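Tutorial, part two.
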Amino acid sequence: MRKIYLLPALVGLLTSVAAGPLAAQGAVPKQKAAPAPRAAAAGAAPAAAAGAPVAAATETPIAGADDKTAKAIDGFRSAKFGMNEADVRAAMIKDFSAKPDAIRAQDNASELTHSILMSVPELLPNGGTAELSYVFGYKSKSLIQIGAVWSKGTDTAMTPEKLFSNANILRAHFMGEGFKPDSIAVNMPVAGGIVMFRGSDAKDRSVILLLQGTFENKENNQRVLTPTSLLLFYVADAKSPDIFKLPPGQF
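Running the prediction step on this input gives:
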């Protein structure tokens, strides 16, 4: 069964790019919480995707966004954070005119979370088939995260150029959505990819757009990324995700 890798614990991506292992590897990674991706080495040449240059990493406030216009991240389409599984299933059926048997279930044995997944053609217009995943918390049993993945594993016709195009379209969209200025970062090289966008709302609910792939060193020490997957996450609480953790002192 194909599995989706989700990121409910990317604390570093919400504050700064901190040292740590890459969040995910492979075209359709396994669902699992992870530390923040490792930042590219200081002084490295700007990354590029599919052979095209990417702007230098940016983590400065974006003018024009303030508390009155700030984006509120409450879920994805009709599925809202805090919903139970039955309500999310109904939202998926409504949003995508899906049949109930198109929705699959998946459990995470280490985090003790539960997910439901569905393939959606043209989730992004002309973007190919994506796989959506809705994650329910360990204690709350309510929706804590929504993820979408585009890759060869979700669509055999996917190409690096299409992934790069999808990433640029989504980044441009999010840049105009009014996230908290001091939370916005774009084009941030990390180990194994580029954080195309990250931003948070007033309640620290976050959006993360991550383009993953393989880097090659080209002329003039320029690193070029060939994309293999694009991951989009809506996260209710990245700093304290509702996942199983051993109580202190047990071991």
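The chain has a mean pLDDT of 80. In part three we will examine how such features are distributed along the chain.
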